[in-house]
Design a protein that fits this description.
The chain is an alpha/beta fold and about 230 residues long. About 30% of the residues lie in helices and about 25% in strands.
């Protein structure tokens, strides 16, 4: 098995374990990203087998996938509280389960869904586990398009190396919410809660990919099997 095939299989194992948590009648938050997509795929199969749930997607891509699989979707207008959200992560901090998310471009909607959930479960392979956030990935920051260069400058004054994200067409990447994404390197983040608060104070910042005290459990797949992590 190639390394890519192994990673895919580990992601699938994590997704299947998360699908086992879904019960009839649940309102389910449907995450975005490669592992979350495998969860949605598994959920679609279970819906075809008779599972009765409704979902709220975190992105247009997830919405399209869920509809193609026959998963019924609802909105916050009729279902303001979500029973369980299953989503991926770019980094999961050991012990706290604090996260960096947003490399898939859906961090704002993902955070809205997470904040509206009674419970959030993260699915990932064991490469995503870190001792401190920022060890391996950049921190996405979603910003309004107007004056984004000024917003980027202020992020730089905080000590970040800032790069605007571009799409495959070479143009600035636009989120589902119509905003832009600035990928920031702050180095290893020793106090993510404090950094999140500082970012919120910058005019022009919509939100960041720091998910602090959002996840209740992480289902992590590795070569030795699937483990479940909770906050220590």
């Amino acid at each position: 098995m190639s390394d890519a095939d192994l990673v895919h299989e580990l992601k699938r194992q994590s997704a299947v374990a998360a699908a086992d948590l879904i019960e009839d009648g649940m309102v389910v938050g449907l995450g975005t990203g490669s592992t979350a997509a495998l969860f949605v795929e598994e959920l679609g199969q279970r819906v075809r087998d008779g599972l009765q749930i409704v979902g709220i997607p975190t992105s247009k891509a997830t919405e399209a996938q869920a509809l193609s699989l026959g998963i019924s979707l609802v909105s916050f207008e009729t279902h303001p509280v979500i029973d369980l959200t299953v989503d991926g992560a770019d980094e999961v901090e050991r012990g706290t389960l604090n996260l960096i998310k947003g490399l898939g471009g859906a961090l704002l909607r993902e955070k809205i869904v997470a904040a509206s959930s009674r419970r959030m479960v993260v699915v990932a392979d064991d490469r995503k586990i870190v001792d401190h956030l920022g060890e391996h990935v950049l921190l996405p920051v979603e910003v309004v398009p107007f004056g984004w260069e000024s917003t980027a400058h202020r992020l730089g004054q905080m000590g970040a190396r800032v790069e605007p994200r571009h799409g495959r067409d070479g143009k600035l990447f636009v989120t589902d919410g119509g905003n832009l994404t600035l990928d920031c390197s702050f180095g290893v983040v020793t106090d993510p809660a404090a950094l999140e608060e500082r970012l919120k104070l910058i005019t022009g910042v919509v939100d960041s990919g720091l998910f602090i005290n959002r996840a209740d459990e992480a289902i992590i797949a590795g070569r030795d099997g699937v483990i479940r992590l909770t906050k220590s």
